[in-house]
Design goal:
Helices cover 50% and strands 19% of the residues. The chain is an alpha/beta fold. It has 5 domains: 168 residues, Four Helix Bundle (Hemerythrin (Met), subunit A), CATH 1.20.120; 113 residues; 181 residues, Heat Shock Protein 90; 137 residues, OB fold (Dihydrolipoamide Acetyltransferase, E2P) (Beta Barrel); 117 residues, 3-Layer(aba) Sandwich (Rossmann fold).
């Protein structure tokens, strides 16, 4: 293999490995202290997935030592998940040592150091087996598996790794190196300027509308003058001798209107010119920065030939790989995120899909199987990645049986499932169509990771399969992570963006077309009944007005992975490009939402997660609507929201205002306390971690003030351990809401109860 290419590959792996190791270390520390069963299971699942993903990446670059350690970690975490391995300090110490081994090996080890590495690993495995000994169903680890490895490529890896930090001093003086994260930051700042450009457009539109109104005013004044002159002519000479101030007043108003029209016209021209200049300059810088982050698809696909060859040799299979679309340019961040899903799918194709040569020949197939991977640029803003094989296809009955064993579906549900619904089971954690677990796959973990990654990128994934005909996955993704094309809709006075890739059709239907079938509202689409849900009901928002009593409904027909549903909204604004702003980690788990954007009008719009919306519609888990009759409506209530994150503040403001509350914003605890002392508020919603004065101190300050001590306080925070919750309650807070499990309906219920 080319040394330069291997160096680049190893450099990429080193960064990825560091991320996985860091994540596992932090999660393991949290797992040692956690007490809740649900949270413990969630952390263990995360550790399991991190080890699984790192194992695949290590295999892709041929570092079998790290792959073997990850396989051992998988076995330990699997035992923790099943309960056959119990938590203990000794176990955690050994797992930490395994993770440290990965970190040390990734940093580069000499041949002499490898001996110590193997010895340490063998010792850890023996100690783990001692812990597992005697426990029912506990796993048994194979001792000394690494030292048995005889892979010449490891020498190449070591030599390449040793030289990774060497640089050409002459070249170094001619360039400036910038980390990709800094480029990302610069690009996001430039796109903030694009938001300003959209605001300019909105202002110009307002100025044009003002000009139209002035022109209309002038026409009315002229008509009034003509009517008055005609009236005077009709009345004759006597009327002209009377004192008449109306003509002078009209002329004065006309002169004022003309002057006003000229000033607005000048302002409009200047605004258009400045907007055009701003747009061209921002676009130029944006395109320049984006071009630095655009890489050919070969950056991702080049890792596949070696991966396919190594896996096929190991499994005794013959597989050829066909690649297409290597020159298609894609945002490097998208390619980096796509690497892990692609490896998972390829591994499954070789392990589960492609048959052994003898089996293929008996079926009348060529002895050599084929996997095809292609990248296609669908438009200027989206790509499509197709991964297909000519293997035996997905065994749907085995998949359904595995889902039954795991408790994912019930017997009753299994009997009524259509083929497309059965295929969706591949995305459920722990469900695999394979009856055996191998070093490569079969644990039912890869495809859930694939789906989660694709959803996080704002894309979609579909699968089709045929018995002995193979399986095809199609992944649709945006070319870049910073912009998104979507349909902008309104519901309950709020704006929402639904990614265009999920919108099959936008339509306007008569209300009488909505029928109730089995207690669910439906409509006919192409002759087939489709579930219809009102967006405000789905999100638990109070209705702005009674949509169901309207003569017509605005409907978006959503479609993803064979699932279809109709989403009714109060109105469709338009379709266009928006700047995608993902939520920060504190809000990453807000259901049905991916991020936010600021529209040209300055209004905040929430970007919806269409896949989660469809999941909620299909499962029937619709949030309770906060619709109330006029005499039961919440409020009037005045609430102050204190949070140092503008995204969190704006989101909470929109949720509360839609529920009928008057909202005042504060940037931290000190700002909130000053405003509370000068106004009247019925309740305070505050973050905990803020500069100057945090939420705990704000709550204590309120409780010590005779005039303010009775105001209810709700803490909405990312701090979710029991110690922080206790601190919150001890400080005098009335409620403690964790952002990671944030549900707006729960928040509104709490507020309604406290006010």
């Amino acid at each position: 293999m080319d040394q330069e290419f291997l160096k680049r590959l190893l450099a990429t792996f080193r960064i990825e490995s560091e991320e996985h190791v860091s994540s596992m270390s932090m999660s393991l520390i949290e797992l040692e202290g956690v007490k809740g069963q649900e949270r413990s299971a969630e952390i263990t699942e995360g550790l399991y997935r991190e080890a699984h993903s790192l194992k695949g990446a290590a295999r892709a670059v041929g570092i079998m030592e790290i792959e073997a350690v990850c396989r051992t970690l998988e076995t330990v975490f699997s035992g923790l998940k099943k309960g056959s391995v119990l938590h203990s300090r000794e176990l955690f110490n050994l797992v930490h040592r395994l993770i440290n081994l990965i970190s040390n090996f990734t940093s580069g080890v000499s041949e002499e150091e490898k001996v110590g590495y193997f010895s340490e690993y063998d010792l850890i495995v023996r100690e783990l087996n001692v812990i597992f000994e005697g426990a029912p169903d506990a796993p048994q680890l194979e001792e000394a598996p690494i030292s048995k490895l005889n892979t010449p490529k490891n020498e190449l890896v070591s030599s390449a790794s040793a030289g990774m930090d060497k640089v050409d001093e002459k070249k170094e003086t001619q360039t400036v190196r910038l980390p990709v994260v800094l480029m990302d930051s610069l690009l996001l700042k430039v796109e903030d300027l694009l938001s300003l450009r959209l605001s300019f457009d909105h202002m110009i539109s307002d100025l044009n509308e003002l000009n139209r109104k002035i022109a209309e005013w002038k026409r009315e004044l002229n008509n009034l003058r003509l009517k008055h002159e005609s009236h005077r002519t009709y009345l004759g000479k006597d009327s002209s001798q009377r004192k008449d101030i109306l003509p002078g007043s009209i002329e004065k108003d006309l002169a004022y209107a003309a002057s006003f029209e000229e000033k607005v016209g000048t302002l409009s021209r200047f605004s258009r010119q400045h907007a055009s200049d701003l747009n061209s300059k921002v676009r130029m810088v944006q395109d320049e920065l984006r071009s630095r982050l655009m890489f050919p698809a070969s950056y991702l696909l080049d890792i596949l030939p070696k991966l396919v060859r190594d896996l096929s040799v190991e499994l005794g299979k013959e597989v050829s790989l066909e690649l297409a679309g290597l020159s298609v340019n894609v945002d490097k961040r998208v390619l980096d995120e796509l690497k892990e899903p692609l490896i998972h799918i390829i591994r499954n194709s070789i392990d589960h899909g492609i048959e052994r040569p003898s089996e293929r020949l008996s079926k009348g197939k060529p002895s050599r199987g084929k996997i095809s991977v292609g990248v296609t640029n669908l438009s200027g803003s989206s790509i499509e990645v197709t991964i297909s094989d000519d293997g035996k296809g997905i065994d749907k009955e085995s998949l359904k049986a595995a889902a039954l064993r795991q408790g994912v579906i019930t017997e009753q549900r299994a009997g009524s499932m259509e083929e497309s619904e059965i295929l969706e089971l591949i995305y459920a954690s722990g469900v695999s169509s394979s009856r055996t677990v191998t070093d490569i796959s079969g644990r039912g973990l890869g495809m859930p990771i694939v789906q989660e990654t694709v959803n996080r990128l704002g894309g979609s994934i579909s699968v089709s399969t045929g018995r002995n005909k193979g399986t095809t996955f199609i992944i649709s993704l945006p070319v870049t992570l910073t912009t998104l094309r979507g349909v902008i809709a309104e519901a309950s006075g709020q704006f929402f963006v639904i990614p265009s890739g999920y919108v099959e059709r936008v339509m306007r239907i008569e209300s009488k077309e909505v029928k109730t079938v089995e207690n669910r509202e439906t409509m006919l689409f192409n002759g087939t009944p489709v579930s219809l849900i009102f967006l405000h009901d789905l999100l638990g928002l109070k209705r702005k007005y009674e949509s169901k009593s309207s003569l017509y409904l605005s409907v978006l027909m959503l479609l993803s992975r064979g699932r279809r549903a109709a989403l009714a909204v109060d109105g469709i604004i338009n379709e266009g490009e928006v700047i995608f702003k993902p939520f920060n980690k504190q809000l990453a788990k807000v259901r049905n939402m991916n991020g936010a954007t600021v529209l040209g009008s300055g209004n905040l719009a929430i970007i919806l997660n269409a896949d989660e919306l469809l999941d909620a519609i299909q499962s029937g888990s619709i949030s309770a609507s906060f619709e109330a009759s006029n005499d039961e409506a919440a409020g009037p209530g005045s609430i102050i929201v204190a949070d140092d994150s503008i995204t969190s503040r704006t989101l909470l403001k929109d949720i509360l205002e839609s529920a009928g509350y008057k909202v005042t914003l504060a940037v931290d605890g000190s700002d909130a306390l000053a405003k509370i002392k000068t106004g009247h508020f019925d309740l305070i919603v505050t973050d905990v971690e803020m500069p100057r004065m945090n939420g705990f101190d704000l709550t204590r300050a309120l409780r010590q003030d005779e005039k303010l001590k009775n105001i209810p306080v709700v803490l909405v925070t990312a701090l979710e351990n029991s110690t922080d919750k206790t601190r919150g309650i001890d400080s005098g807070a009335d409620a403690y809401v964790v952002k990671s499990s944030f549900d707006q309906s729960n928040l509104l219920e709490i507020i309604k109860r406290l006010i």
